[in-house]
């Protein structure tokens, strides 16, 4: 009798835990969906990365602007430097992912393959890190924004929230800090310099110019020239 009672108590406990877990998943999905939809039109008040930058003493310089106020040079520069297939993929560049995995198996230095969409998912909704749990959430949010936002909104959000220096977030703040001008007035060279710091904007500095930025921005300018005639790229620049 005692064994049966223990069995039924354990069975009841497992059922309650399962129901609780299911409710947490359901409420989490609903809340995330609501926030994703809100962010289709409203910029996030603050991101986890921005919060961490402010409270760790690095400051928080940002100035959200609309897509039309950004200028085509910086839009083209970040696509040329970060994600040349951005207009064409569904949020994931599987060929680049495979290349990165092969590289990381053979080399100590890790190479990423995140698209602009994945970076937006991470920067807006998540935290910095490499855990499988965070990566799984990144896949979910990438899928959702690709289907609910559209490419222009994703690119606009990327250019507003991406870190572009120590405590500097977004292209408007970067343009003012580095070149004392608005983002829409950036030259091709200036836009390419900002785009070249994006893999690690704290280490790859624009002022003073680091070796990485000095070597990379001419390459980005050449890629901008190659990409600008593409019809899908042109559609995003309009």
Helix content: 55-70%
Instruction: Give the C-alpha Rg.
Output: 21 Å
Structural class: mainly alpha
Might you state the CATH topology name?
Answer: Penicillin binding protein transpeptidase fold
With strands numbered from the N-terminus, the spatial order across the biggest sheet is 1-3-2
Task: Name the poorly predicted regions.
Answer: 100-112
Q: What amount of the residues lies in strands?
A: under 5%
Mean pLDDT, to the nearest integer, reads 87
CATH superfamily: Biosynthetic peptidoglycan transglycosylase-like
Helix-strand string: HHEHHHHHEEHHHH
CATH architecture label name: Orthogonal Bundle
| Whole-number total of structural domains | 1
Number of strands: 3
Name of the top-level CATH class? Mainly Alpha
* Ends apart, CA distance between termini: 75 Å
Main sheet makeup: 3 strands, mixed
Anisotropy-based shape = elongated
* Count of helical stretches: 11
């Amino acid at each position: 009798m005692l064994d049966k009672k223990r069995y039924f108590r354990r069975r009841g406990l497992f059922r309650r835990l399962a129901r609780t877990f299911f409710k947490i998943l359901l409420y989490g999905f609903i809340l995330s969906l609501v926030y994703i939809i809100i962010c289709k039109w409203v910029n996030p008040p603050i991101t986890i990365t921005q919060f961490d930058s402010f409270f760790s003493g690095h400051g928080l310089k940002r100035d959200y602007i609309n897509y039309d106020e950004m200028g085509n040079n910086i839009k083209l520069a970040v696509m040329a430097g970060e994600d040349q297939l951005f207009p064409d993929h569904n949020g994931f560049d599987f060929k680049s992912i495979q290349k990165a995995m092969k590289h990381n198996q053979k080399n100590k230095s890790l190479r990423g393959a995140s698209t602009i969409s994945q970076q937006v998912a991470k920067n807006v909704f998540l935290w910095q890190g490499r855990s499988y749990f965070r990566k799984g959430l990144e896949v979910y949010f990438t899928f959702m924004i690709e289907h609910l936002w559209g490419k222009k909104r994703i690119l606009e959000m990327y250019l507003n929230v991406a870190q572009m220096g120590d405590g500097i977030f977004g292209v408007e703040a970067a343009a003012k800090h580095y070149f004392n001008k608005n983002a829409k007035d950036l030259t091709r060279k200036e836009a390419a310099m900002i785009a070249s710091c994006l893999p690690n904007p704290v280490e790859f500095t624009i002022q003073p110019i680091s070796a990485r930025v000095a070597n990379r921005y001419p390459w980005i300018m050449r890629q901008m020239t190659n990409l600008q005639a593409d019809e899908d790229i042109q559609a995003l620049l309009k």
